[in-house]
Write a structure and sequence with these properties.
mainly beta, Cathepsin D, subunit A, domain 1, 2 domains, about 10% helix, globular, binds 2-acetamido-2-deoxy-beta-D-glucopyranose, Aspartic_peptidase_AS, aspartic-type endopeptidase activity
Length: about 400
């Protein structure tokens, strides 16, 4: 059940992303209540100071997503959103959604004097062949209506931000403890979203994420800078490959499992970084090559195409350290390492003695999410088109 959640979200994010690349959607960013990053940190100060907003962990046996508060409208209404580097637009439940969004806090556009109804309707249907909870037909679907309003994150405010009101949704969204998604794709100042508006007001064009496991807590997003109290050492940066567009991704020459690799795993691949999902996706052959180095008893689950599992009573003793190698801007290899503790994402709903393993097969895509990001402090540098990582404090 919980994977289905994260996977469905993932697919949602990808869907949003694809809509965006068709040029139909304007970018947006950011949200939450806030506090300003500590003075004396190595932030370049320009017209706007960075702002840090706390994030809550959506946890169902494993860390699924991190979400925080933004405010929308005049007077401001509180809206909770996932900060999703895998998508670009802002959408959230609204009173137009009525009973279908009864489980979510709903934004009431009639109570906002700054709301503009731009009147375009659209929908996002989430579909995929993978997931513990299978996507059947259009059982993950959001219906949207476009608008504009003032959006702020702490003291940082932008006006006339393009956004979408959710006017209907399928029941699969009922378990979300948040109202929407704030896309954080790699959009520059020329784009039309919240983050872009702040960049054009002089905010440095980067943000940073501290996505911690639930036991560590204190997760946060810093817009416009970094919070040097949340990492140690000097971050290592890697450049986004040319042609990445809005997509946060890096080129990786090698995957290793428990220090071993294979020729297939040593093939260059491009990996997307998606803060809006907890799962990891690789093409089927790659996924099976990784599992072969962990245990021959990790098997595909025929009931849930794309997923794999092994007896729960064996999973915690399996060494499964996965090193994903990247190349720094200085030309040196560095690894992002997924510890063995991430291997199990919990029992399958239809077979509770079998635990699902971390990676799902998804042909045509390599993607990592929270299960990697939560072991690092990550710096998403839009302006310099690079991603940075440093050891996270307390993780
Ligand atoms: C969002 O705001 C509400 C109301 O002020 C607060 O109770 C909640 O803790 C905030 N959530 C986060 C993640 O900061
Ligand atoms: C990255 O991981 C591989 C496989 O475990 C290891 O051989 C290599 O030394 C690591 N590289 C660095 C820079 O730590």
């Amino acid at each position: 059940m919980l994977q289905s959640k994260s996977l469905s979200l993932l697919v949602a994010l990808l869907s949003v992303l694809s809509i965006e690349t068709q040029g139909q959607v304007a970018p947006q960013t950011i949200a939450l209540s806030s506090r300003v990053a500590p003075r004396g940190s190595s932030l370049k100060r320009r017209a706007l100071s960075p702002s840090t907003v706390p994030l809550a962990d959506f946890f169902l046996g494993t860390d699924l997503q991190w979400f925080g508060n933004i405010s929308v409208g005049t007077p401001p209404q509180l809206v909770t959103v996932v900060f999703d580097t895998g998508s670009s637009s802002l959408e959230f439940a609204s009173t137009l959604c009525g009973q279908a969004c009864a489980a979510q806090v709903q934004f009431d556009s009639t109570k906002s004097s700054s709301f503009v109804d731009t009147g375009r309707t659209s929908s996002i249907t989430f579909s995929t062949g993978v997931g513990v909870d299978p996507v059947i037909g259009a059982n993950y679907k959001l219906t949207l209506r476009s608008g504009q309003d003032t959006v702020s994150v702490g003291g940082l405010k932008a006006t006339n931000v393009n956004l979408f009101l959710i006017t209907n949704q399928t029941p699969k969204f009922d378990i979300d403890p948040f109202s929407g998604i704030q896309g954080m794709s790699c959009m520059g100042a020329t784009a039309q979203g919240f983050f872009a508006a702040l960049i054009s007001q002089g905010l440095p064009s980067l943000f940073s994420m501290y996505l911690t496991p639930k036991a560590v807590g204190k997760a946060e997003l810093t817009i416009g800078g970094t919070d040097s109290t949340k990492f140690t050492g000097t971050p290592i940066f890697a450049s986004l490959p040319a042609g990445s567009g809005n997509t946060w991704r890096l080129s990786s020459p090698k995957l290793s499992v428990n220090g071993k690799t294979t020729s297939l795993l040593s093939t260059q691949r491009t990996i997307i970084f998606d803060s809006g999902t907890s799962n990891i996706l690789f093409p089927t052959t790659t996924t099976e090559a990784i599992y072969a180095l962990i245990s021959p008893d990790i098997k595909a689950n025929p009931n849930e195409p794309g997923t794999y599992g092994i007896a729960c009573n064996r999973i915690s003793s399996l060494p499964a350290v996965i090193d994903i190698t990247f190349t720094s801007q200085a030309g040196k290899p560095f690894n992002l390492t997924i510890p063995s503790s991430e291997l199990s994402v919990g029992p399958f709903a239809n077979d509770p003695s079998t635990c699902q393993t971390l990676i799902n097969a998804f042909d045509g895509l390599s993607l990592v999410g929270g299960s990697v990001l939560k072991h690092y402090y990550s710096i998403w540098d839009v302006g310099a088109q690079r991603l940075g990582f440093a050891p996270a404090v307390g993780v």
